[in-house]
Amino acid sequence: QSFHIQLVEPRAEATLKGLSLLERHKQSHQKVLMEHKAQNTTSWQHFKGAVFEKARLSFEGKIWVDPAAQGTQAYQKSNHLLLEDKAEAFSKPNLEIFTDDVKASHGATLAQLQDEELFYFRARGLNPALAKKLLLRGFCKEVVDGYLEERVDCHLKKMLD
Q1: Of 12, 66, 75, 148, which has the fewest Cβ atoms less than 10 A away?
Q2: What DSSP letter does each residue of 85-99 carry, written as one string?
Q3: What is the mean pLDDT of the chain?
């Protein structure tokens, strides 16, 4: 998947969210270019991925701020969760800023479920499969809040059963 968004009018805004749930040998490669070309533009990007088995996920994002784009605010974040030893994920966030009056940040995380997190649920009588499902649901919630929760829950159920 490739996204190229240009904010060309003053005060233009863009929000981009994405979620990948990959299993078996599936692969997903996401590339985003967010160009700020006008004053006082705002962008917010957040991509998450949960990678099972031998699946591979990559995210490459770039925020580009033109010299004329004074007052830009831009945020980019990717979070990947590896759920098996052979699962792979890569992130490459990038900022290219050519003006001074900007608020911009980017970040990436790569993590696994922690034994302490699973223990917390087991200590309260939940089986490991349900604990994993609840932790994954919480991980996904931030980017699907509201409009896709049912579909994500259904997909997680299929992957975890």
Answers
A1: 148
A2: TT-EEEEEEEEEE--
A3: 91
Tokens 């533009």 appear where?
41
Confidence of residue 108 (pLDDT cuts 50, 70, 90): very high
Same domain, 49 and 86: yes
* Domain assignment of residue 41, given as a range: 1-112
DSSP class per residue in 5-28: EEE-STT-EEEEEEEEEE-TT-EE
Contact (Cβ atoms closer than 8 angstroms) between residue 125 and residue 134:
no
Indicate the SS3 state at residue 3: strand
- Beta-bridge partners for 80: 49, 110
Return the residue matching tokens 């609840």.
Answer: 134
- Overall number of domains in the chain: 2
For residue 160, the model assigns a pLDDT of 58
- Rounded Cα gap, residues 38 and 124, in angstroms: 53
| Average of per-residue pLDDT across 98-113 | 95
Neighbours of 57 (CB within 10 A): 27
My answer on whether 71 and 120 are in the same domain is: no
Mean pLDDT, residues 66-85 taken together: 96
Non-local (6+) Cβ contacts of 64 within 8 A are: 33, 34, 35, 36, 96
